[in-house]
Amino acid sequence: MHGRGDGSKRKELMPTFFASCPAGLAEALEKELQTLGFHTLEKITSGVYFDTNWEGCYKANLCSRLASRILKPVMDFTAYQPDELYQQIRKHDFTKYIKPTQTMTVDVSLKESMMRDQRFTAMKIKDAIVDQFREKFDVRPDVDNDNADLRVHVKAYKNHFDVSIDTSGDSLFQRGYRRQFVEAPVKENLAAGLIRLADWDEKQPLIDLMCGSGTFLIEAALMALNIAPGIQRKKFGFMSLLNFDKELWNKVVNEAIEQEKEETEVKFFGFDIDRRAVASAKDNARNAGVDHVIEFKTQPVATVEAPVEKGLLIVNPPYGVRIGDEDNIKDVYRDLSYTMKHRFKGWDCWILSGNKDLIADLRLKSNRKIFVYNGNIECRFLKYSMF
Ligand SMILES: C[S@@+](CC[C@H](N)C(=O)[O-])C[C@H]1O[C@@H](n2cnc3c(N)ncnc32)[C@H](O)[C@@H]1O
């Protein structure tokens, strides 16, 4: 929740922003924001509060690899009844964000609150906002749930409402490079977060034995080449707001481009049994501008040999929940286990899986276990040091 109960003194000095992230990544996100030069305030399960100005907000949207969205909290209050909620929302001037001819939407999540109906609550909030416009301009913004110019996020927990302006628009995992889809890809910001959790030092060779659309390798290569994850995106939410400063945005983009490297010594290898998956991974890598540093090959996990002596292996085998059937998958896990044990001695291997029975079938002992969510599937991210 956003309410931080810190007297809001700091808010007067420097606006507070909130970077949301998948569960399990908040600590890594906090570190990332600090590395990007931000002053972080507080970490909660769903993300990290940090102080910055609008230039920093642009930079966080462009450069954070782990954040799902950057939100600008604008008010918090307690409300038990719809009319109370309506009156509270009216206290904040929403007409300063967009013109009445632009569009808006409200996203609501309610937990343990008197108001339980998400749609009705969103409608009440929307009414309070559009009434402000109608009274001031005689015109009100239309609602557009998919491509709104103003996206208002509201979270209520135990009747305490936190209201934010979404500065990202589409979620930040949508980098813009993945145009080819395979089944069950991992979200880009989760992939980047897992690479951080695996303590990859941006020097070790990196291999993915079941690379699918290539997300892990592409995200890691973007890190190694210092390419901002949002550099391909055409649109961010803040661009539709009235205070959007295009010159400042161009400055932030140019500064990011100046930091890019053309080459890296790091070696990246991707394998997958599915020819189409490998073709899509190659396309995606090309779109992301990292295809020159990654070698992709169509090959089943059972026959892959380590291409270099040591490095980091990361793999997201099928879970059985979304693709394939359990019996075949058991063989896949056995093959994976055999290959890791016999051909990747000396490597640190990380497996992301949403199926603990299949993990048990590996018959390997993990030396670290981290719980994360891949979409709404609870997964284990397990480390195996192969000696
Ligand atoms: C969950 S998907 C990986 C998704 C990937 N992490 C991404 O972000 O796109 C699992 C992948 O394992 C591959 N696979 C299944 N059996 C395999 C095998 N025996 N050898 C190699 N790859 C296999 C599938 O083709 C699929 O692309």
Describe this structure in words.
By secondary structure, the chain is an alpha/beta fold. It has two domains: 9-166, VC0802-like; 188-228 and 261-385, Rossmann fold (3-Layer(aba) Sandwich). It is 32% helix and 24% strand. The longest helix is centred in the N-terminal third of the chain and has 20 residues, at 118-137. Residues 5-12 have low confidence and may be disordered. Bound molecules: S-adenosylmethionine. S-adenosylmethionine is lined by residues 182, 184-186, 210, 212-213, 215-216, 272-274, 277, 300-301, 316-318, 332, 335.
Summarize the structure.
The protein is α/β, with parallel strands linked by helices.
Blueprint of the fold:
Elements: H1 9-13, E1 16-20, H2 26-35, E2 39-44, E3 47-51, H3 54-63, E4 69-78, H4 82-90, E5 103-111, H5 118-137, E6 142-143, E7 150-157, E8 160-166, H6 188-197, E9 206-208, H7 215-224, H8 246-258, E10 268-272, H9 275-288, E11 294-298, E12 312-315, H10 326-343, E13 348-353, H11 356-361, E14 368-374, E15 377-385
Parallel strand pairs: 5-6, 5-7, 9-10, 9-12, 10-11, 12-13
Antiparallel strand pairs: 1-3, 1-4, 2-3, 4-8, 7-8, 13-15, 14-15
Helix pairs in contact: 3-8, 4-5, 6-7, 7-9
This protein binds S-adenosylmethionine (SAM).
